[in-house]
Specification:
Blueprint lengths: L13 H10 L12 E4 L3 E2 L11 H14 L5 E6 L2 E9 L1 H9 L4 E6 L4 H13 L6 H15 L3 H8 L3 H10 L4 H9 L4 H5 L7 H11 L3 H10 L18 H14 L2 E5 L8 E5 L3 H12 L2
Parallel strand pairs: 2-4, 3-5
Antiparallel strand pairs: 1-5, 3-4, 6-7
Helix pairs in contact: 1-4, 2-3, 4-5, 5-7, 6-7, 10-11, 11-12
Length: 295
């Protein structure tokens, strides 16, 4: 008779997994009591850890602190699936690396019974909680939690202590072209700049212009609305009739979805407004009618 299948990681629930990640608290919080202390040579990193790079200077700083005070917060580990005499890191690889630099021989650990799915889920959650995470990596983490584990935006917002709008806005960034995502990852663009470009046909060119001219977010929003300046043309004075970021973003997303230029005129302080759709041919108009009728 076949053995019953072990419930997948989602069965434990995102909030329950978050509780374990929060147990793996930063070094400057109140210490947790470890289950046991094990030789550092008996601990192995998780081979499927999404985080591949660790800042050398930050590790050296942590190693100096550990050398002086020891490891205050225990690592979360599980028994290594390939060797019952070893332990595999679930959360806390940065402390393990720093402890090796500090030449420690033993580490405090909390032992948990996690399957492979739960380990990967916790690794993604732990990465999302990093203070130095860039917007693209954070958005990618949310997308992984949704696609691989079926979590909704509402579930993630509640468990991770984020607003739903924060998660939704970051996920929209993943629709940007790869060059723009690269500049956002490198810090050449802020999330505010990038949000103004979501859904825009010329997002890459606009992003290059924003970086070259070192434009503010408000200027980037205005640029997304008006497009790049043409040689020999003059712009109206800055600030005249500019739209807020949310309106510009909705215009860009509708334009990208309908493949037609969409303009929204919304007067501040009023509920209503005017939405205009520009079509270039009767074929485009037919396409629009089919889209609106659901055909």
């Amino acid at each position: 008779m076949a053995k019953p299948t072990k419930p997948r990681g989602l069965g434990r629930g995102l909030s329950a997994l978050m509780a374990d990640v929060q147990t793996d608290a930063p070094e400057n919080t109140a210490p947790r009591r470890a289950d046991l202390t094990v030789p550092i040579d008996s601990i192995r990193p998780n081979p499927d850890q999404p985080r591949r790079t660790f800042d050398d200077d930050a590790l050296k700083e942590l190693a100096a602190s550990i050398k002086e005070k020891g490891v205050i917060q225990p690592l979360i580990v599980r028994r290594d699936p390939n060797d019952a005499d070893l332990y595999q890191i679930v959360a806390g690889e940065r402390r393990w690396r720093a402890s090796q630099m500090a030449q420690l021989h033993e580490l405090p650990v909390l032992v948990r019974d996690f399957d492979d799915t739960e380990v990967l889920e916790i690794a993604i959650i732990e990465n999302i909680q990093r203070a130095d995470l860039n917007p693209v990596d954070e958005a990618t983490g949310y997308r992984q939690l949704m696609d691989r584990f079926g979590h909704t935006q509402d579930q993630m917002a509640q468990a991770l202590g984020k607003s739903r709008s924060h998660i939704a806005n970051l996920l929209r960034l993943l629709n940007l072209p790869d060059p723009v995502l690269g500049w956002l990852t490198e810090g050449k663009l802020t999330a505010g700049h990038a949000r103004a470009l979501v859904g825009h046909d010329d997002a890459t060119k606009l992003a290059q212009h924003i970086i070259q001219k070192q434009l503010s977010v408000r200027d980037a929003e205005r640029l997304a609305k008006t497009g790049l300046p043409q040689p020999g043309t003059k712009r109206s004075p800055a600030g005249g009739g500019s739209k807020d970021a949310d309106t510009v973003q909705i215009e860009n997303e509708l334009s990208a979805h309908l493949k037609m230029k969409v303009s929204i005129d919304h007067k501040p302080g009023q509920e209503g407004g005017k939405l205009s759709i520009n079509y270039k041919s009767f074929e485009q108009l037919d396409d629009l009618l089919r889209t609106l009728s659901g055909d």
